[in-house]
Amino acid sequence: MIGDGFENIWFVGCGNMGGAILQAWLDQGLDGNKVTVVKPNASALPGGLQSQPDYPEGSSPDLVMLAMKPYQLDDVAVKLAPLVHESTHIVSVLAGTEIDILRTAFPDAGKILRLMPNMAVTVAKSPMILISEAEDAELKAQMNELFAPLGPPEWLENEEQMHLATALSGSGPAFLFRFIDALAVSAAVLGMNKAQAERLALAMVDGAATLAAESDLNPGVLADRVASPNGVTRKGLDVLDADGRVNALLHDVLKAAMERNREMAEEAKA
After folding, report:
1. Whole-prediction pTM value?
2. What is the Cα gyration radius of the chain?
């Protein structure tokens, strides 16, 4: 059962991402009685749960999910830090907030980890990007079990990689959505009904992603396999490939997002 090993889970904040993780856990069978959501203002929560403005009294939590806004960390730490101890692991989804800053905020906590999911947790298909401040095989196995139902866990070798991983996986769905929309808009301009063009673009991407995931071949090789010499697909690929334009465009997209994530980390330190 998901959540085994964690009997007392606190969510601090529960916005879009925190709510998506909580909903996905509940959908996968997490016992809602194990969860406490702490946030200043009451709002609708997954599973019919009710938030509360204050932290529970009594035993410390086993797991704290930091899911508020990054700028709220200092205010949260004032009340939360005295309540967590070495038996409390902290998982942060705060963009740009590095482990050193989290450790300073919560000096007595157990292991501190960063998590970068994307909104595909709602369909259990988000890469769950993780980094821990220290190697711990038992904790890693626990976290894999906890997060695998929401998508494949991917552990980074060092925290610096989180900037690029955030750009690629965290922001990636938005980039793909823009690409799908551009295909549909272009098809509409060329003469197709817009709604039909959107359906075709979505179905095509869904099928192509499944094929790529199940294939042993690199996606670049798959693209060339689809394209017959001098055929329809090859003519389209020639446009994408001319002067490396698609590679250059996506390089610039990822670089811009990565650098903004790095800037946010510097702002958090300041």
Report:
1. 0.88
2. 21
